[in-house]
Each structure stands twice: as C-alpha cells, then as structure tokens.
Amino acid sequence: MMASNTATMGNLPRGIGICTTIPDILYLPELVFGGLVWILVACTLVVPANPQAWVMFVSLFCFSMTFIWMVMFFCGTHNNRGSWAAADFAYHGIAAFFYLSASVALAKVTLEIKETTPLNSRNYKLDISAVVFSYVATLLYFIHTIFSAIRWKSF
C-alpha cells in the first residue's frame, strides 16, 4: 500500500508509513538537526544578539511545526487529500527558506566572532557546529520540499 518512492505516490502516508516513504522519512533528521541548532545557539553568548534571535526563532518554529506536522501525518488527520500534499510542500518550502536565511545570518555572526575571539574558544566551536547543522537542516528541508512538490503534483 505505501510506496517507497515518489514516482508512484498518490497517497499520503499515515501511521508508521511516515518512516518508510520519501519525503516523510526526512521528518526525523529534520527534528534532530533542527534541535541541535536550537541547543547549540542557546548555549552560546553572542553579541549582537539580533541575528541569533532570528536563528532561535527559526529553529524553535521549525522544530515545533515539524513535530506537529509529523504527528498529524502519523495520526492520519489528512484523509489523503491533495490539499494536504500542497500544504506539506508549502510548509517545507517556507521552512527551507527560513533555515537558509538563519544559516546565512549565523555564519555571518560566526565570522565576525572569529576576528575577536580565539579560535579555540568554546563559543566559537559551538557557533561553528551550529552553522554546520543549520546548513544540514536547510538541505534536509530543501530536499523534503522537492519531494513534497513531486508528491503534490502526482495527486
């Protein structure tokens, strides 16, 4: 019943099927890497705080919404309608855009810190890790967006 590739997807998965279909299998890595960004940015002390506030907003928003979205798919609230496939595409597209903007802001702040902080400092290492995980999360959301668009068009 559940397709494991996007070419034959006309149904939205429910239950454990979200762990076996593309793009829904990406929910868990999105949660892991988004959570790591959230934790790492929360552990650092950075001036200016404004770009970091955007990064925290994006990571918290996307973590919360992805978890809620995953639970909704798991519980089968979507009733296998094409509008849910379109909403999945729209959400992941917005999340990818948000994460890209947050990743760029975080990388900029990290480069500015590099000039004033020793390279072996704890905050700098945490920021580098956060930048890497933020770009990985961006890539995961982007891939999810592409596969969600393919699934949406197959409805």
From TrEMBL:
It is a multi-pass membrane protein. One of its GO terms (molecular function) is structural constituent of myelin sheath. InterPro entries: MAL (IPR013295), Marvel (IPR008253), MARVEL-CKLF_proteins (IPR050578). It is found in: Membrane. Residues 18-153 form the MARVEL domain. Pfam families: MARVEL (PF01284). One of its GO terms (cellular component) is membrane. PROSITE patterns: MARVEL. The chain crosses the membrane at residues 25-47, 53-77, 89-108, 128-150. Keywords: Membrane, Transmembrane, Transmembrane helix. GO terms for biological process: myelination. It comes from the Eukaryota. This is MARVEL domain-containing protein. It comes from Dissostichus mawsoni (Antarctic cod).
